[in-house]
Amino acid sequence: EIRWVGIGQAHNLLVYDNDKLIVNKAKSFIALMK
Q1: Secondary structure element (H or E) that encloses residue 29, with its range
Q2: Where are the domains of the chain?
Q3: Distance between CA atoms of 4 and 19, rounded to whole angstroms?
Q4: What's the whole-model pTM score?
């Protein structure tokens, strides 16, 4: 059980990092469009 929890947390962190990257790219793109 502990292993699965660790994998789930690691996956959530990866998804969170990806979301931050996408948001930052979107912000940069919007800033360029203005």
Answers
A1: helix 2-33
A2: 1-33
A3: 22
A4: 0.56
Q: How many CB atoms lie within 10 A of CB 16?
A: 10
Sign of the torsion angle spanned by Cα atoms 10, 14, 17, 23: negative
Residue 12 in tokens: 């959530």
Digit-coded pLDDT (tens) for 7-28: 788 888 889 999 999 999 999 9
Q: Is 33 exposed, middle or buried (0-12, 13-18, 19+ CB in 10 A)?
A: exposed
pLDDT for the residue 32:
93
